Amino acid sequence: MPLSSSLARLFAAFLGLLAAVAVSTACAAPSAEDAAPGWRDEEGFRAMKRFQRGINLGNAWEAPPGTWGDRRYGPDDFRAIRAAGFDHVRLPVAWHHYTGPAPERLISPRIFAEIDALVAGARAERLTVIVNWHHFDRFTDAPDAEAVAWWHAGWAQIARHYREVPAGELAFELLNEPRDAATTARMNELYPAVIAAVRAEDPRRTIFVSPGNWGALKLVPELSLPRDITNVVATGHCYEPFLFTHQGASWTGNLNHTRGIVFPGPPPRPVTAADGVPDWVPGWLADHNTLPAEKNPSGVSAFAGQVADAAAWSAREGRAVHVGEFGAIVHADPASRVNYARAMREELDRHGLPWAWWDWKASFAASVVTPEGIRMDAGLREALLPARPADSGAGPFARRDPRR
What we know:
Layout: H1 5-27, H2 32-35, H3 42-48, E1 53-56, H4 75-84, E2 88-91, H5 109-124, E3 128-132, H6 137-141, H7 145-161, E4 170-173, H8 184-201, E5 206-209, H9 212-215, E6 232-237, H10 242-245, H11 281-290, H12 301-317, E7 320-326, H13 334-350, E8 355-357, E9 367-370, E10 373-376, H14 378-384
């Protein structure tokens, strides 16, 4: 039966109202509860409780044999590291220097023996260990079939070799600082297969994965793994402000020739750019010389956004995040190193991100050598590892803070 004109108009208005409500509901921003992914890699987050405050063992086994890797680590180092309050060490190894020819790429028993001693020494002091694959330039220059097969063969052997070490005491980081052709997108494609190669030998091992652009923390939000791959931790590095943290570094070309940069700026006296630096450096230094600390390029703002973004991604994607490297070179003045260490650690703590300082006793050393032996620098210890109540007991080697 046809409707009267007035009823038809009312019915049309009612339909319009329903449509408007539907559009409004569809376009409204979801609540935080609605937006939550509903998924979380619980194994990865549990594993991270064992890797909260760490130190890198640099300038040793990540170097080509017979070159600049002149540091050696032993029981005295591990005792001092644990006494300072650290709970884990990160051990860089350039495994490719110790493998045989394709296709087997057999790893030398000699390097396994050396790394075994380090892993055992750390575990004896109740330190957990991250073993990585460092400076694999052949891979990062061109991650082609040959390089990928080399990588898989190496990790399968490493996983087989260490599968008897309890899962909570040792983790693997698949590639330090992917860069150049090893972009984040390319690594997202490659990680599942190499993780499968590891898990075929050692199903329980925690695995750390990095983004491209030198493992940049700011690119962690671009990492993507299938959700059926668990017990994985995303890891990134942050050395901002780079002109401060790397001043005087010999390996960065002319970029870091300028010294005297402080943290936080501005400095008591203006800093002048060294000869031959890139064109943008004088402008950066002008801001460093004049802007107040909260706006200074050598200040907390240099890294706060990256830390916050990584933490937000962790919460959104349900993946644990670890900051595997940050630090300031020994050429920086001691007070600025302490200021930087404290500011970065506080920012990481504020967002609940665990971390590892680079490094223990090389160019970014956190340690000093005294007549009584090696120990952690007092200023850096208070900045990075302030006195705190008894340890929570989350880790496999839980005990009271050794400094208390």
